Amino acid sequence: MMTAAQFKMYRSIANRSLQRVLAYRISYIITFLANSINLLAIYFLWQGIYSGREVVGGYTWDQMKTYLLVTFLANSVLSWYSESAISGKILDGSVAVDLLKPVDFQTARFAETLGSSLLEGGMSTVLLILFATFLTGVTFPGSLSVYVLFAVSLLGAIVVKFGVVYLAALLCFWSTGSMGIVWTRIALTNLLSGALVPLAFFPDWLEKLALLLPFQAIIHTPSMIFLQQADTGESLRLIGIQLFWGAALWIAGKAMWNWAVRQVTIHGG
Amino acid sequence: MSIIEARGLSKSFMQAVKEPGLGGAVKHLFLPRHIEKVAVKPLDLSVEAGETVAYVGPNGAGKSTTIKMLTGILMPSAGTVSVNGINPYKKRMDNAAQIGAVFGQRTQLWWDIPIVESFSLLKDIYQIPGAVYKTNMELFTEMLGMSEFIHLSARKLSLGQRMRADLAAALLHNPPILYLDEPTIGLDVSVKQKIREFIKQINQEQNTTVMLTTHDLGDIEDLCKRLIIIDHGAIIYDGSLSEVKARFAKNRVIFFQVGSPMPELYAQLAQTPGMKLAQQSAQEFSVSFDRYEYTASEVVGRVMRYGEVVDFRMEDTNIEQVIKAVYDGKLDLTGTGE
């Protein structure tokens, strides 16, 4: 269990990570703009698909609008920074400096991720509220409990996504380039989490497969809860599955790190 | 028990052997062949608390590999290490808490935020008590002249500033052991001086054990009482710096500037055993000699018999030349010295 001093240390790391994002004001504004354009593009794409149709794959246009906003939020709470920073550390060898600190590598990276996600998640929320006020027909849930469950599921989504990112980053110990790994991971995550299209649009077998994998916990779960396609009991079950995947990926990450460090410390950095 | 204790410590790596060309690359893909490369041969090392040790050797001699094993980021292939009673590889985190390290080529500062923020993060990481942190920050800021750049982010610092900040970062938690890997590489003379003064003071006041690898022989002469030379993965000398100087730095050189050329002296010197003449120009030359065989006044007196000496200066062989001779294989320190 974590002691108070350790908690303070990891909180400090998260704090510095937040400061780092703030240090790049310009890049932060550009990311903000890029995200908005991306969201607009996807919005108009789906508007085109829905023209002349009432329902696609069981989703009405109003539901789809909501789905897009939720997807956007869930996708952006885990910062872009953390997607590339961990593999970067491994590739440029600065992981050696981390090994010289009395700090658990995985927890420290998670703290960093949370720190920078706080800002980028906040930014996305602002953007979404702006969007939602100009859009008609976005369905907001009426009961408070849905919002609470949704917030919890977003947290769960962060943990699961971190697990995926972390495991993929550790693969860089064996590869000399990170781009291939990063893009493969992004493609897999986007497809199987429901970020591209809702899982309900998939052929039956692929949907079943996707539901067995951890990726669905990142987008599918929060969107099901927010769109109230899952009742309270079902929502709790989905969050439970998230927690299971979060824990499983964490343990897998730990095991893989221990193994990777052994390789590195045996073969040299 | 010594603070750093290694017995039979060695490290070898597997190295891929590829034949040249595309054919070789393809062949390696299917039939990889490796050879074992020994980086550090089994070595014994004991360092007492408070010692300042220079660990030197040519590039690729095994210096960094040894330091990495002592810091716990590299697993030894064989042998045992104990640093302050801790096996650094098995208990990496415990060991990390009691050491400070500066690797000249890398920084531990956060690149994009003010370095003072990096320092306060270290306070939380090492759980440094508030009072200790405050005292150290004041002392280090003053001694290393950091006040002008402590509020800048690391990427805005010059190399000299960054290195000073890194050194402060490594010592904030008063570690009993400090590893420095080329701490003055690429720095100007005044920064070098500041850094050496600082390390010296920390070593004297807190009895910090310092182990230093360097190519800068000024670092060694200024800082270290003990010298360990490693070459081809084996320790070839381990002893006091003054002893190595007394034993091997016995050459003295006197540089002369004379009023007119002295051909007869040159001819005479060429025949004198134990003296060596090197001519710089018609009126400038140097004579090197064994300082146990001749005295400086003997040499000067001899030159003065042949004409007017405008100016002269004397140089002792410094540690630089001794180590260079060892690297070049001209001097064998393992034997009796001859």
TrEMBL record, chain B:
The keyword Thylakoid does not apply. Pfam families: ABC_tran. InterPro entries: AAA+_ATPase (IPR003593), ABC_transporter-like_ATP-bd (IPR003439), ABC_transporter-like_CS (IPR017871), ABC_transporter_ATP-binding (IPR050763), P-loop_NTPase (IPR027417). Residues 17-257 form the ABC transporter domain. GO terms for molecular function: ATP binding. It comes from the Bacteria. This is ATP-binding cassette domain-containing protein.
